[in-house]
Amino acid sequence: MRSERRPLSAETSEFARARVSAEQDLRVQQEHAARTVAEHAHDVDDLRGLLAMLGLEAGARV
Protein backbone atom coordinates (compact mmCIF):
# COMPACT_ATOMS: atom_id res chain seq x y z
CA MET A 1 0.00 0.00 0.00
CA ARG A 2 1.45 3.31 -1.03
CA SER A 3 0.82 6.46 0.91
CA GLU A 4 0.51 9.66 -1.08
CA ARG A 5 1.01 13.08 0.39
CA ARG A 6 -1.85 15.38 -0.36
CA PRO A 7 -2.01 19.08 0.41
CA LEU A 8 -3.90 19.93 3.57
CA SER A 9 -7.49 20.89 3.02
CA ALA A 10 -8.93 23.87 4.85
CA GLU A 11 -10.74 21.48 7.19
CA THR A 12 -7.58 19.50 7.94
CA SER A 13 -5.45 22.58 8.57
CA GLU A 14 -8.18 24.04 10.80
CA PHE A 15 -8.12 20.81 12.82
CA ALA A 16 -4.32 20.98 13.05
CA ARG A 17 -4.48 24.58 14.30
CA ALA A 18 -7.14 23.63 16.86
CA ARG A 19 -5.02 20.73 18.07
CA VAL A 20 -1.92 22.92 18.48
CA SER A 21 -4.00 25.50 20.32
CA ALA A 22 -5.44 22.85 22.65
CA GLU A 23 -1.95 21.50 23.39
CA GLN A 24 -0.71 25.01 24.20
CA ASP A 25 -3.72 25.62 26.46
CA LEU A 26 -3.05 22.33 28.26
CA ARG A 27 0.59 23.32 28.89
CA VAL A 28 -0.53 26.67 30.32
CA GLN A 29 -3.05 24.95 32.61
CA GLN A 30 -0.42 22.48 33.77
CA GLU A 31 2.03 25.30 34.52
CA HIS A 32 -0.62 27.16 36.52
CA ALA A 33 -1.51 23.99 38.42
CA ALA A 34 2.14 23.27 39.20
CA ARG A 35 2.67 26.85 40.37
CA THR A 36 -0.39 26.67 42.64
CA VAL A 37 0.76 23.35 44.10
CA ALA A 38 4.25 24.76 44.67
CA GLU A 39 2.79 27.74 46.54
CA HIS A 40 0.86 25.44 48.90
CA ALA A 41 3.29 22.55 49.36
CA HIS A 42 4.87 22.19 52.79
CA ASP A 43 8.21 20.91 51.53
CA VAL A 44 9.88 19.32 48.51
CA ASP A 45 8.54 15.85 49.26
CA ASP A 46 5.03 17.24 49.60
CA LEU A 47 5.45 19.09 46.30
CA ARG A 48 6.62 15.97 44.48
CA GLY A 49 3.78 13.88 45.88
CA LEU A 50 1.12 16.43 45.00
CA LEU A 51 2.48 16.90 41.49
CA ALA A 52 2.54 13.13 41.00
CA MET A 53 -1.10 12.89 42.10
CA LEU A 54 -2.00 15.43 39.44
CA GLY A 55 0.07 13.69 36.79
CA LEU A 56 2.47 16.61 36.54
CA GLU A 57 6.23 16.39 36.42
CA ALA A 58 8.38 17.57 39.29
CA GLY A 59 10.77 19.24 36.83
CA ALA A 60 8.05 21.40 35.27
CA ARG A 61 8.55 25.14 35.25
CA VAL A 62 6.90 26.86 38.18
Structure notes:
This protein starts with 9 loop residues before the first helix and ends in an 8-residue tail after the last helix. It is 68% helix and 0% strand. The protein is built from two helices and no strands. With 62 residues, it is mainly α. The longest helix is centred in the middle third of the chain and has 31 residues, at 10-40.
Shape: elongated
Share of helix among residues? 55-70%
Per DSSP, what share of the residues sits in E-state strands of 2 or more residues?
under 5%
| Rounded mean pLDDT score | 86
Number of strands: 0
Please specify the SSE layout and strand pairing.
Layout: H1 10-40, H2 44-54
Features:
62 residues, 68% helix, elongated, mainly alpha, single chain
Summarize this, please?
This protein is mainly α. The chain has helices at 10-40, 44-54.
